[in-house]
């Protein structure tokens, strides 16, 4: 048997049928490799859940994908039946809002609008002009996102640009998040180009010099929501995906991993694999039935913080909303003292998200900023959210539709000192041959990052 025969004969078990697990399984299948995916839940998709009720469509997890690479385009095109269901965001979705003084203001998209925008003061705008002359941080120092933003852009831009952005992406605290781990591209601009403006110019020039094919950057979803992506991946993988299973034991024997699991009908199945990939959240790893020593090693990853987030999707009659709702959504800075992190405008971003003459809003509450405001009680959450929407968007009527999803542990936080946890992951893999840890706690939290990591395996 030559090397290529051995490679094609290798067997892989993936535990977790979220987007990270399914994307990796599809890559393996495309290469002709054997793969088994085990999922505890009845449905594949992990946090990628869509709820359709008549003409309303609510997303419980990710709301869209930023498509900006030819590789990811090719990956999505390879999934049977997915391309015909893909939809692009409307042009108005390019407009974003940030709340200041209790009102949503349009985020400037160019130099002229940045000068005239009421979002930042004249002094704040002048401070940004100093950014190209601010020295890069020492490579030995791990900056927080907040310290980086204040150093490069000043305190006002931190408060009314970076702080709400971090709340919208991570539901996180910029004072705690590690710049090199949470925003590695911004860190690279600082270290490699001496700043954001210099780095932006360098990237623009490099893109112009590149004569090869270029992706068309756009925001996408699917006709019946983001859940179509894992659903169609699972369908393409067929009998390789096993849902509603209970994993009974995982043990290492020589060069293989032997996994025993029970199917929904109670049948116990046991099989051996050359490679074991764990794609479940970090806080669940130590609960897998490994031996006590490996469980102890994985327990170190329990320290990765996952704050709670409540997602409340509400429908309203268009006539009951004063704001034009003509954009992607509005982010709320911490200094505004509100109880919501932000609100998306799904019916403005994509078609077929709400009935005619109605609008759909998705509100996020909790996170690192105010974890106590996140709750599984829908009525309590509405009492928190509705007064905020009334003040910010001029909503006067009662909701025509309500859908609530509470995530007790939502988004992993890449906090200061995260390098130690990444080192723990590498050490575990080195000490246990054939074991791999994968997921949004390691290679980036967005759907795009999860797909990119799967393509690199």
Describe the protein's topology:
Elements: H1 3-9, E1 11-15, H2 19-30, E2 34-38, E3 50-53, E4 56-59, E5 65-67, H3 70-77, E6 86-88, E7 96-100, E8 103-106, H4 111-116, H5 122-128, H6 145-153, H7 155-169, H8 179-182, H9 184-193, H10 196-209, E9 218-222, H11 228-237, E10 241-242, E11 246-253, E12 256-262, E13 268-273, E14 275-278, H12 292-299, E15 309-317, E16 329-331, E17 342-344, H13 346-349, E18 358-366, H14 378-393, E19 401-407, H15 418-431, E20 435-437, H16 440-443, H17 447-455
Parallel strand pairs: 1-2, 1-14, 2-10, 7-16, 14-20
Antiparallel strand pairs: 3-4, 5-9, 6-9, 7-8, 11-12, 12-13, 15-18, 15-19, 16-17, 17-18
Describe the fold and architecture.
The structure is a single chain. With 457 residues, the protein is α/β, with parallel strands linked by helices. The N terminus is likely disordered. The chain contains 17 helices and 20 strands. The longest helix has 16 residues. A seven-stranded mixed β-sheet has the order 8-7-16-17-18-15-19. The chain has a five-stranded parallel β-sheet with strand order 10-2-1-14-20. Strands 5-9-6 form a three-stranded antiparallel β-sheet, covered by helices on one side. Helix 2 packs parallel to helix 17, helix 6 runs antiparallel to helix 7 and helix 9 crosses helix 10. 41% of the residues are buried. Among the domains are: 169 residues, FAD/NAD(P)-binding domain (3-Layer(bba) Sandwich), CATH 3.50.50.60; 101 residues, protoporphyrinogen ix oxidase, domain 3. It is globular and about 65 Å long.
